[in-house]
Structures are given as C-alpha cells and as structure tokens.
Specification:
heterodimer, A: alpha+beta, 5-stranded mixed β-sheet, 4-stranded antiparallel β-sheet, 38% helix, B: alpha/beta, 7-stranded mixed β-sheet, 6-stranded mixed β-sheet, 13 helices, globular
C-alpha cells in the first residue's frame, strides 16, 4: 500500500487586512494557500524562521508547533477563531506573519519562474512578530530579519481632558494593543523590501530621487495588489461601498443582493468607491484624527492621487513630487490607476442582465473585441440601454484576477530593469517588455496599452522610444556579439563565464573598461504563457560597474559637477546592465545604464549633492543607512535627523586640503587605474 | 567684573560679579552636574554652593537656569531632610531678585492651556504635555536599558543621555518657588534687552534664544503636533514591561509585562541555540533605537536653552547654555544679531564641548579669534566639562560624539584664550578671571 502523494499546498488562516476590518464585528480572515513544507516548531521553514523574541520585555514566546493530519498536511489551529484569540495569542501572530510572507515569496517565485534568494548570505529570513515596543516595522539586511513592532493604543491626548487622562489605562485589559504583525499590508510591504533587495541589491545605492523612492513605491504596489487579490477583501469593500452606500437613484434588486447596479460602474464612481474604500480600510487601524504616525498615510495618499489631482498639485508646487517618498507615491498611483482602468474595461465586456433576465441567462462570455460597443451584450440588442445588473461575484472575481495579473507583471519587470540608477521610465519599459515576451497577445485585457496610458497621465513615459504596435518596449541589441570563445552552457549558469562573455564583448556592450565590473547574478527562469501554455525560457544576468573619481576628473569626462563641490571631492559613479538571453544563449535585451552617461550622472550628482552633500559619497557604505532613513520618513515618524551642519573637522581640514591640492599634479597626468577597487559592503562575498 | 568658573565636574556653574565702586552685584548662570571629577571630594557640590554664598555675601541678584538638564540645574535641588541644608537651599537663602528660565518652563502655560482658545495657547499646552511625555520616555529608556545586555559604550551613551533628561523635580520646583518669591522671567528671543536695570544697572542682557512657537519655523503647528504625537506614542510604548508606576508618573500603569499576560522574560543562555545570534542582534537594534530616541530627546531639551548676550563696559559675553543650531537659527536669521555677535569677547562653550552645541556658523562669526589678528584682547573661551564622562568614539557608527570634542578643543586652544575646568587641580573649587571693562 503506497502512501498518498505529498500535498503541495498548505491552507492557513490569516487576517485579511488588519484587525480593524470586520464583518458583523468579527475580524475578517481568509484561509490562504501557501507552499507546503516540513516545518520545525516556530514555525521554521526553509525560507522563513519565526523567532518570537521581544527585545522590550526580554520575553521569548514559545514556538508554534503544528499537528500533522492524516493527509499529510498540518492542522490549521486558528481556523474560524474568535477575535480574542486572534488578537491575544502570540502563536496566531506567528502563523499570520509566516503565512503572509510565504505567500508573498511564492508570488515572486511564480512571477519570475525561479527561486528568489535573500540579499544576505543565508537561506532563512528571521522574523520577529513582536520585536519591540514601537510603532515601527522594518527589514534589516544586516540582521537578516524582518522586525515588527507593537504598541499600546493610546487614547487621544485631549488637552482639555486632564482628568480623563488620569483614568487612562489603569486597567491593562482596557488598553488595546496595535500589532504591526497583524497588518497584512505592512507584512507584504516589508517582505517585498527583503525580496527586492535580493533581486536588485544596488537599488539602495545613492542615486536619483526616483530610485530612492522606488523601494517604497514598489513595496506599496505589491502590498496593495496582494490585498486586492483576496476576494474576501474586495467583497467587503463592494459591500460597504456599493450595497450600503449606494448612490441616489441607483437601482437595487431587493431579492438578490448578489447583483450590482451597473450604472454605478462608470469609471469615476468605481474609482471613488473602490479605491477610496480600500484606502479607508487600510487606514483605520492606526489613523485617528491626525494620528498617522505610521506609513498608512502614504498608502492612502497614493491611492487617492488621481491624475487630475496630480496635475493640480503640480500646478500648485511643481517640485513637490521630486522628493523621493512622494515620487514613490506617484508610481503607486500610476499602477493603481491602470489597475482600475483594466478592471472597469473588463466589467464592461461582461454581460449585463436586467432584473427580469437574471435567472435565465448565464454569465456572458468574456473576450469581446475591444472596440465592441459597450452597449452590446448577450441577448440584448445594441439599441437597448445599459440598465441592469451584474453578478457581484463576477465583478469581485475579475477584480481579484486583474490585481493578480498586474502583480505578476510588476514583479516580472524587475528582471528587465537596469540594475543601477533606476528611473520610473525604465521600469515602465521593463513592464511592457516583460509582458510582451511572455504574452504577445494582449487583446483580452489590454494591460500594456492601459499601463502606457495611465503612466502618461502621471507624466511618466517609457525610456525606450520604440513606436509601432508595441510602443515603449526595449529594443533588441543591434551589435554583433562574439560567442566563439564562450562555453555557452556554462555561461547560462556561471557568473565567471558570463563575465568572460561580457568582457569579450565589452565594446559592443558599451562597458567602461576602466571601471570595476562584477557580475552580480546569473539566473535561469521558466515562465508559462497563460493563454497558450507555451514555455518561455530565459536567462537573466546582472552586472554592475563602479568607479570612484575626484570631481576634477569627472569634469573632464563631460559630466558637470555642482558649482560648490570641491575639486578633490570623491565621487562614486555606478553603471550596469541587465542582460536577457533566450534559451539558445542569444542576447535578447541589453538593459543598460552607461557608467559615464553625461546626462544621467550630471543630474544624479546634482541631486545627491543638494540633498546630502558630501555624505552621499562617504566611505562607509551609506546605502543601508539611507534605506532605513527613507523608511523612517515614510513612517512619518518625527523626528528626522538632519545633520547638515558638518563637523568641526571639516571646517578645519578644509584649509589643509586646499594647500595639499596645490601640490597635486595636473589631473591629465593621472590615469584611471588609480580609481579604487572598492567593493561596496552591500556585497557579502565572504562569510 | 569677574567671572568665576566653578569646578562641578560634568556640568556648568558660572558666577559673574559686577563691581559698582565698593558694591558688588552677582549673576549666577547654572549650577548642576552629572558627574564629579576623579579624586574630587564627595561634598564637592556643597562646597561650591557654600563658596557661592560666601562670595556673594548671601545675596544673589540674578539667577539663570538655562535649561532643565541635570548638569545645569541639578544643584538647585533642595534637601528632602528639613534639618539638613541641600545645595538648592543654600542658593535659595541668597534670595535672588530675578530668576531667568526658558519660556517652556512657565507653569502658567499649563493652566492657560486648559482654557486655551487661541492657537498659541494650544501649542503651549502641547509643548508642556510633550515635555512630560519626554520625561517618561527618558525614564523608561533607562529602565529598559537595564535588561538589555549591551556593550559598554552603548550603555554609557544611554545612561549619560537618559540620566540627564530625567525629571529634576526638586530643582525645578525650587527654581519656580524662588521666582515666585521675587521676579521670574520666562524668556524667549526678544529684539529688546531684558529690563534688569534695578538689579544690574549698566548691564545689557539680551535673550537670543530659545525662539518661541510663533517665531520658529521648526515648531510651527504641524510639526509640534507631530512632535507631541511622537513623544506620546513613545511614552506609551516605553511603558511596557514595567510593573507598576513609572517614576511616579501615574499616566500609564500596567501590571503585566507587555501585551501578553503571564509572559516571563527569558534568560539568554537558556534560549534555544538557533535563536541566540538573533536575540543578541535584536537587543543591539533595540539599543540603538533607544539611543536614537534619547539623542533626540537630548537635542530637544538642549534647544530649550536660554541664550544670553551680556553687554557691559564695552565687553560682550555670550552664554548659550547647551543651545544647538536649531535653537540658534532664528537669532542667526537676524542680521543685527549676526553683527552683534562678531565682536564677542567672552564665549562660554556649549554643552561642555560637544559638537552639536557649538555651531560652526556661530564660531565662524567671531572676529576676535587669534587668526583674525583682532588687535586687542583675543576672544576668551570658557568650558566647564570633564573628559571620560562621555567617551563616545567607541562605537564605529558614532564617530564624532565624544564630549569634549577633540577637534573643537584644539580649535579653541589655537584660536582663543581658552580655559577649561579640566585644568583645575583637585584642590581648587573655582578659578576667577578678571574681565577688563572700558571705564565709563
């Protein structure tokens, strides 16, 4: 008798959004499907380890251990549990965090068609669900960890209410606690930072405001789309914002609440109801009046930033969106706007039924030609008005499906994005190209066209200026490349062989010969076209270049330096490319940022110098510090360290340097060989 | 006039004496300490207090408490024993005519706020509540720090900053009482000098800081709300893990450790092996979070410092307390202030020689530095400090934080006539300097 085949998935209960989102007073939960694995108590899996240590109290909570059922899966101990248990049992918190992280990880692996590693040496990410008493949660690469804080929900400190304040919280039962580890969007957001850091390590280097804002923006996008891909959440929002708050004059079928009045599905109304609804739901837990000490303020702002508002804001203050964290919000707004556009288009192509017909007709088939008049629906002639109802279940399903696909698109785009000095226009081209490669026929959803349109409304145009039926996609390389001395098979797996290929073809690929070059990764990927089941095999390689020069030398390369920058100021330049090979080892795309690109480097230097001064080029690796700082700003937690005065030494050392400079020979005589061979500490090359 | 710099270890205490013919009038600027120098007698502070009383013949005319840190006002604390005289009692017995403190200390602000209808009133109240929350944070940090086993330097940092910020209830109370008994001035930046004619005729005393809410961009509406919120959240968060009341403040009371009842702290050596590395790392993270918090706290407190510019007999003396650049910014935005600061003759070094409290912009403005060849007396600088109290520099992530800062001290020695209490040997409780004035 053989044992049953091991199950591939495991079902576990999580909180759908966060404890404030409830249905009939019960916290909204969902049972999600994650990859099954052999778990040690913790739970500790092969990628994620929960260590429930609280550094504020010194408590190490006992690990969660699962019981094995007959069919080989684990029992879900928190299925349909009451609020009290969900809120107060630290073991549920451990499960919540574990499951959501694993779900996010598996989404990434599905989208990219391969395993996705962490950016540190090690396979397991440590996670502390109750790390400290603080309204904060963050990813720490050095500690290989995700840390989630918690804090007591302080009642409002009304100054007129001194006496009430004295009664405050004498009873711990009365005090309620806010756990960031129970916020779905926070967990996904932080996990995404960790994953993105593993995929594109150099995005934390000092660069443009867009790169600085990208980590946060991208993490928010993944968080929002992840939540939207849960039908329970979409259902709840539709409930609250259609059924309960239906507009004046909207029709309702009294005896069947499963139908939605299609009139209310015009674009603007849909946007207002759905996105605002979502924004409200994610805002609740930690927003009271102005008390938005946590990042949800940012999510809500992005979600509410319509193209019209964006234009208006820009008129008022053209520079405001140049700040990194606001820039990130614009990216989120553009993607969410596209999401809505696609969803509405999809719903419009669905059949609509009148109240009379609801029971006799099945759902209309999808995939109508795009330019079909919206008035054409099954069994109803073109002359008939769209008045009537749509199956709510179908609307929700479509929404979840669109969110899910867009999420995949957004993650895939990472492989097609340059590894250094990213700009949003690059990311847009990357999204379009990645999608086109896997799914050439976009007629059903028109994702690519909609993305272009949506980004255009936020003034982001693709880097690639190709036109034609697929505008904005990366162009294939035009140069002839040499493969004769390369072992192809090895190249598609081994960074050294890959580097050999790159070096052999350095002129064709446009490398800066005098810079330090390193292949960061060589990764095979296997993706499936959802429409026809055909397999797309690619190899994605990343290399980057680094050069450290004095400002004076940089000037001679055609890159302008800021007027008040001293000639001896050390300046670091980065460049690099993502190389995409097909299954035969031929180079399909060379997504490159040239190290000595005058335009890019000029604006990068200007931006860094104005925002951080010489600190941006400090010897100690500032990337992690910047990352943490950006995060703090996003969390909106006052106060922000701004150490702009400089040090006493700077003031005095300056004069010495002036004297010293006069002794240095003219820069023309110095060669680039003297550039440092510095390996930024973001690379952990040896244990 | 004379200036006495008292040896209080890590702290400030300066006594200015103005000679009017045979009469003398005295101004005491700060009296506090967080650490005595090595080898100093246990009753050092008492000795200082008694010397002050003796020297001013039981009469102080003006008393200045620049800000509420312990190393500036600790000495004003009174004795809890009614039969024994504490240092604060001694000072009080000199019955100062005027007590000068920053506006943030004004007790009236709190009561006004209850009925505040104006924005300013509400802001004041916010600031007061914030101060209280900040104290709570300082207290809880020192508590939390005890169970986290940090490396030496981190603990030192925390302790140094935390202690300094704890509520100096007795001192504050005494100061307020002394002010009530005579005249209390809760000051902010003013265009016009203070009215101290009756106490110190011929002496012009200008207040260059702190700015108040309406003056400072930094503390405008939104940000003060942010600040208040932040401290409140921190105070709430910091009160976990404590049993019972925190530091006498009944605002938050928990009878269990954190949000989970029955949770018991774990001894690190008993934690499962696979968790130990991580636990150590987490404790370190927590430590640096706390440190950052207290640093901010420290900065904010320092920035409540009163900055005084004293002009007498053609000489200018600058006493900035521990003011940092944020405090200075408002004053430095006024061209006439900048002008006035150029020919300062005497400068008391801020925050015992720390980097932050001696803004470069102010330093660069002084025209009487040696290298400027002023053609008269060179700038005189006074520093009241102690090395080793705040060694800093051990933590590679924190390279410039030792107090006193070496490069600063070098600059002072090179460019000015510099005196530091570190130069006093253990027998001397003070050193007196004569400041030559132009004859009237």
């Amino acid at each position: 008798m053989s044992s049953p085949a091991p199950r591939r998935t495991q079902e576990l209960t999580i909180i759908a959004q966060d404890p404030s989102v409830r249905v009939n007073g019960n916290i909204l939960t969902a049972q999600i499907s994650i990859p099954a694995e052999e778990l040690a108590p913790g739970p500790r899996g092969y990628r994620v380890q929960i260590v429930d240590y609280d550094s504020s109290t010194g408590v190490l909570h006992p690990p969660l251990e699962y019981r094995i059922l007959e069919d080989g899966t684990y029992n879900d101990p928190f299925y349909r549990e009451k609020n009290e248990v969900l809120l107060n049992d630290p073991q549920f918190h451990a499960q919540n965090v574990y499951a959501i992280i694993m779900r996010t990880l598996s989404r990434f692996e599905f989208a990219l068609g391969r395993r996705v590693g962490w950016s540190f040496l090690g396979h397991q990410l440590q996670v502390a669900p109750h790390a400290f008493s603080d309204a904060n949660a963050f990813y720490s690469k050095d500690d290989r960890a995700l840390l989630f804080g918690y804090f007591p929900k302080a009642d409002k400190p009304s100054v007129d209410n001194e006496s009430e304040q004295e009664n405050l919280v004498k009873d711990p039962q009365r005090c309620s606690w806010v756990f960031t580890c129970l916020s779905h969007d926070v967990i996904v957001h932080e996990t995404t930072h960790a994953l993105l850091d593993g995929l594109r390590r150099r995005y934390t280097d000092p660069s443009s405001p867009e790169q600085a804002g990208f980590h946060e923006g991208f993490a928010d996008i993944v968080a929002l789309l992840s939540i939207f891909s849960l039908p329970q959440v979409v259902n709840l929002i539709i409930d609250k914002h259609f059924i309960e708050k239906r507009k004046e004059g909207a029709k309702v079928v009294e005896d069947d609440p499963q139908l939605i009045d299609v009139e209310s599905l015009r674009f603007e109304e849909l946007r207002e109801s759905l996105l605002t609804g979502l924004a409200e739901e994610i805002g609740n837990e930690l927003d009271d009046d102005e008390m938005s000490g946590v990042r949800k303020g940012a999510l809500r702002r992005s979600v509410k930033l319509t193209p019209a508002e964006y234009s208006m804001e820009k008129l008022i203050d053209p520079d405001q969106f140049d700040e990194p964290h606001l820039r990130g919000e614009v990216l989120v707004a553009a993607v969410m706007n596209a999401f809505l556009l696609v969803w509405v288009k999809r719903i419009r192509t669905l059949g609509s039924k009148t109240a009379r017909d609801q029971r006799s007709h099945s759902d209309s088939p999808p995939a109508k030609p795009d330019n079909a008049s919206p008035r054409y629906v099954d069994n109803i002639g073109p002359q008939e008005e769209i008045s009537g109802f749509l199956s709510r279940a179908r609307v929700v399903e479509e929404g979840a499906a669109v969110a899910d696909y867009l999420l995949t698109m957004v993650i895939r785009a990472l492989d097609y994005s340059p590894p250094t000095d990213l700009e949003f226009s690059d990311f847009l081209s990357a999204m379009l190209t990645a999608d086109r490669e896997i799914r050439p026929d976009d007629s059903k959803y028109r994702f690519r066209q909609t993305l272009l349109q949506s980004f255009e409304e936020y003034e982001i145009r693709p880097t690639s200026k190709t036109s034609g039926p697929e505008p904005g996609i990366w162009e294939p390389p035009t140069c002839a490349l040499r493969y004769d001395r390369i072992r192809l098979d090895s190249m598609l797996r081994d960074p050294d062989e890959m580097f050999r290929f790159i070096w052999e073809n350095r002129k064709e690929l446009g490398l800066e010969e005098n810079a330090y070059t390193r292949v960061i990764s060589v990764r095979p990927s296997v993706r499936i076209n959802p429409d026809d089941g055909f397999v797309l095999r690619e190899t994605v390689a990343e290399y980057y270049q680094y050069l450290s020069l004095r400002a004076l030398e940089v000037k001679h390369l055609g890159i302008k330096i800021p007027p008040d920058m001293r000639d001896d100021q050390e300046v670091r330049l980065y460049g690099g490319a993502a190389l995409i090979f097909n299954e035969f080892g031929q180079l399909k795309f060379n997504v490159r940022n040239r190290l000595l690109n005058p335009r890019k480097q000029t604006s990068r230097l200007e931006h860094l110098w104005n925002s951080e001064g010489s600190q941006a080029f400090e010897v100690e690796d500032p990337s992690q510090k910047r990352f943490a700082e950006m995060h703090r700003i996003r969390y909106g937690t006052f106060p922000i360290d701004t150490d702009t005065e400089g040090d006493w030494e700077d003031g005095y050392a300056h004069e010495k340097i002036e004297e010293g400079l006069k002794e240095i020979t003219a820069p023309e005589h110095q060669s680039f060989e003297e550039a440092d061979e510095f390996v930024p500490s973001g690379q952990i090359d040896s244990p | 006039m004379t200036l006495r710099s008292y040896q209080v270890g890590f702290g400030d205490c300066f006594l200015l004496t103005f000679h009017y013919g045979t009469q003398r009038r005295h101004m005491l600027i700060d009296f506090g300490s967080t650490a005595k120098p090595k080898g100093a007698p246990k009753e050092l502070m008492m000795m200082v207090a008694e010397d002050i009383r003796r020297h001013c013949e039981n009469k102080l005319h003006v008393l200045v408490a620049t800000h509420r840190h312990q190393d500036h006002i600790g000495g004003f604390a009174t004795s809890s024993d009614p039969d024994k005289e504490g240092t604060g009692d001694i000072i009080r017995s000199c019955i100062p005519n005027v007590v000068i403190m920053p506006w943030t200390e004004d007790p009236k602000a709190e009561t006004d706020a209850k009925h505040a209808t104006t924005i300013e009133g509400k802001e004041l109240a916010l600031a007061r509540n914030t101060l209280r929350d900040m104290e709570m944070v300082a207290a809880s940090v020192t508590e939390e720090e005890k169970h986290l086993r940090f490396g030496y330097s981190l603990s030192e940092h925390l302790a140094f900053l935390g202690e300094d910020n704890l509520k100096n209830a007795s001192a504050v109370k005494n100061l307020i009482a002394m002010g009530k008994a005579s005249r209390a001035l809760f000051v902010r930046y003013e265009e016009e000098p203070l009215d101290l004619e009756s106490e110190l005729p011929g002496v012009t005393v200008r207040v260059l800081g702190p700015p108040d809410l309406t003056q400072s961009e930094e503390i405008v509406s939104m940000r003060s709300k942010d600040a208040a919120q932040f401290w409140m959240l921190q105070a709430a968060a910091g009160s976990t893990g404590k049993a019972g009341k925190v530091n006498g403040n009944e605002k938050y009371v928990f009878d269990s450790a954190g949000p989970f009842r029955d949770a018991v702290p774990t001894a690190p050596h008993l934690a499962p092996p696979h968790t130990r590395w991580f636990i150590r790392r987490m404790n370190a993270i927590r430590g640096s979070q706390l440190l950052r918090l207290v640093r901010v706290l420290d900065n904010v407190m320092n920035n409540t410092s009163v900055i005084l510019l004293i002009e007498v007999g053609g000489r200018k003396l600058l006493f900035p307390g521990d003011a940092q650049i944020e405090n200075w910014n408002y004053a430095l935005s006024k061209p006439d202030v900048v002008e006035r600061l150029k020919d300062v003759d005497v400068y008391k070094v801020g925050h015992h020689g720390s980097r932050n409290a001696n803004p470069l912009s102010v330093w660069h403005g002084f025209k009487k530095k040696r290298s400027n060849k002023p053609g008269g007396a060179v700038l005189q600088t006074f520093m009241s400090t102690m090395a080793g109290k705040h060694p800093g520099g051990h933590n590679p992530k924190d390279p410039h934080t030792e107090v006193p800062r070496e490069s600063l001290v070098e600059a002072l020695k090179k460019e000015t006539d510099h005196f530091s209490t570190q130069m006093l040997d253990s027998e001397n409780v003070f050193k007196e300097f004569e400041i030559k004035l132009d004859s009237p």
